[in-house]
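Input chain follows. Return structure tokens only.
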Amino acid sequence: MFRTNLVRAAILASAASICVSSANADPVDQELVIDGTLKIVTKTAAPEGHPFDEVLSGWLFRTEETRAMEADSFDNPGMLRVEEGEALWSTVEGTAGKSCASCHGDAAESMKDVGAAYPKWDEASKKPINIELQINKCRTEQMGAEAYEFDKGGQKPLTAYIKNQSLGTPVAIDLKTGEMQKWWEMGKETYYTRTGQLNLSCSNCHEDQMGKNIRADHLSQGQVNGFPTYRLKQADLVSLHNRFRGCIRDTRAEFPKAFSDELMALEVYVTWRGTGLSVETPAVRQ
């Protein structure tokens, strides 16, 4: 019993160090304008049913140096991976002898605003589909190529390139098609469910403790409008499902597989939470 109490006390102390013992640090009051010309919506009225009155981009919670990095495409290290994605767009692969460009032509035209509407309902699978899964669907069904493994090959750069064509476009997913509303509700349940030895949910940090410092970082509302995101910590692009799994891991819980039903539902819900914010891909975060 004594040992059990000690373990429980250690777990609670660790949880406190993650989310509770943190100083207030308000988001900045500043506009994000990419390359001095493209104004990005970083704060807007929340959609009906949202826990906050106003939704805020994670950019507002970053340091001055990190914010400046995203505001300049030449300084944004994530743009190197976007350029990789641009090359992949025209690369022929598979038995059909096709590239993405073979069907979709100039991505600046065919993919304009597309990334702001994902995830969306996929009638064939009867599930939501995101950009990564749509790429794999095209590869296997149209190109005769193998699907990308999670976070491998060209998955992250190609996803970032496609999402970058929506830079500045407000996020707006359609919950009225298929069973998207059902998946939204599943995602909401996951968002508020405590997991792991630390007994934490997404909401405990990104809602209850939003605006406070967590060790060397600053807790934002957890918006996902900038993914894939360049994280300085990893010195690389980080995919959304990688970040989901990382957060779940940090609660000391077993994390689901990428693109599992649980994480796809969570993607639907958290994407909706950022409704109206501009797509920032590739955002720069700490």
